[in-house]
Each structure stands twice: as C-alpha cells, then as structure tokens.
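User: Structure please.
Assistant: Input sequence and predicted structure:
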Amino acid sequence: MSRTLTLAALALLLLSACQGEAPPPPKSVPPWVLTAPVRANGATELELTGTVRARHETPVAFQVGGRIATRHVDAGQRVARGSALFRLDPRDLEQAVQAAEAEHAAALSALHLAQADATRNRALQAQAFVSRQALDRTELVVRETQARLDAARARLQQARHARGYAALTTAADGVVVSTLGEPGQVVAAGQPVAVIAHDGAREIEVFFPDSVTPPRTGEALPPEGSPLALTLRETAGAADPDSRTWRSRYRVDRDAAADALTLGSVVRVRFATAADNGGLAVPLGALDERAEGARVWQVVRGAVQPVPVEVIALDADTAHIRARLEPGSRIVALGTHLLKPGMAVRERRQ
C-alpha cells in the first residue's frame, strides 16, 4: 500500500513538471547590411573610349573629271610628298589641249592678218587714199583679234594644266587612311578618291553624352606606357541629332608619344568632371524608389530609417542627390528593398 502511494505521488510530481511554462524562444539575429558613407558632391571620374586621329586628315580629289585609269596606293600605305596616288585616262585631256592649240594658232594668224591690214591702211591714209574712218575700223579689228588671241592663250594654258591634273599626287608625307576610287570609275572634279592622314601631331576623337560638357583636359590610357595628357582643341557646334553625342578632338600634348598611338586605334580616355554644385553623392544601389519618391536608408544606432532625397543626376555608379543628411552619414548601399523603418541591422562597412 505504501509503495502504491509513493508511485502515485511521483506521477503527480512529474505531471506538474510537464505542465510548467515553456522556455522563451531565442531572439532573431539582426541581418548584415553593406553600408557606405554619404559624400559631398565634387569631382568625379568619367572614363570613355576615343579614336586616334591625325591632326590633319585630308580628302584628296582630282581637279578635273574623268575615268580613273590606274591606282597606285592601298589603304594603310605610307606615302611621301609628291607620290602618285591615282591617274586619269589622259586621252580626252590631250584632245582638249590639241583643240586649244589649234584655236590659239587660228587667233594668232588672224592677228597677224589684221596687223598687216592696219599697216597698209596707215600708209594709204597718209597719202589720203583711204579715209580716217577706214583706218579706225582696221585698228579696231586688230584689237579684237588681239583679245581673241589672249582668250585662246588662256584656254590653252587651262587645257595644259588640266592635262597635268590627270596625275593625282599627295601634298604631304602621311598614311593613306582609305581609298574611295577604283580603276575604271568615272569621277567628277572635287569628288574624294582617298583620305590622307598627315604625319605629325596626333589627336584623340571622343564622343560625349549630350548631358556632359567636354572637359578642357584629360588623359589617354594607352595599353602600354604611362598616361598621356590631353587638351581640348575643338568641340562640335551641336550635338549629333542621331546619337545625341558631342564630338570633341583632344590634342596629345607629348609629341614623343605620337609613335605609340596607331592611327584608328581605340584607347581609353579619362576625364575629371565636376558634378552639380552642392548636394551629396551616394552609391547608385542606395536609392530606393519603392515609395512615392526616391529615398535612402540611414543607419542610426543600429536601426535603419528612410530619408527622402531629390535626385540631381545619375552616372555609371553614383547618384547625386539633395537630402537632409550630413556628409559622412552611413547609409545602406545595397538591398534596400528588404528594409523596413526601425529594422535592426548589423553594419558591414564598404
């Protein structure tokens, strides 16, 4: 009997222990967030690509029209001043010279005849055999034939010059950038048949977005060697209507570097551009636009709070904003879509 009471008392004790309060659940651990400091707006770096060009790139063309007979150069070939590039079929030009020579000869003969008539009439007029009026007419004929001879002489000179223009030569040492004419092609006077890049100064052509004002200076970053200083020489008067870019040409300041820059090659160029005066700069990933306006999340005593911002400008990885934030404040740089006001976080600084 006593053993039965003892077992019953033990069972009641175990039952009361099982019905006690459960232990509290473990607290959740705040998540890690990557944070970055808010910076005051200042100079930012803009990196683009540019194309190496010659300071002078001259399209060359014949001064007379005709059919191309021969081509003496190919694209990429070096040429010296006076080198032959193309030659026209000279037959039509030779015939034009022959016709001008014949016209000149006829005008010269007419002048000799008019001068002989004038000489005879002067002698006859002195003896009163012809009137003064007749002498004036013969002298007028002399002046007219002299004028025709002068015109024929000028046309003959033009025809001879045109015959000389059948050979197209280069006016400077350089490299043939491109050839636009082929043997057998009929070209008009002034129609470009090649482009020559002159030796000497090299430039880099850069196209800027229409929202960026081309800086006055910059630097080129060739594949090998140290950076090369650049100075703005010219900017297009208007943005390209199709690409909405500004074409700019930068002079390479160090002449010794010209040999390291291959015409037509693409190089990286870097510029320091000033952001909008005033305002702040934050990582682009810090912007949160889930609300009615843009905002960033500031970390204050281990918790995040949203701060409304006004976006001034955006570039590749930075947002330029205005907000009630002090430079140096810590904000969440990534993953802002997961945050809620007052949420506890642990910082991992960028």
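The chain has four domains: 32-42+277-349, 47-55+200-274, 57-89+166-197, 91-164.
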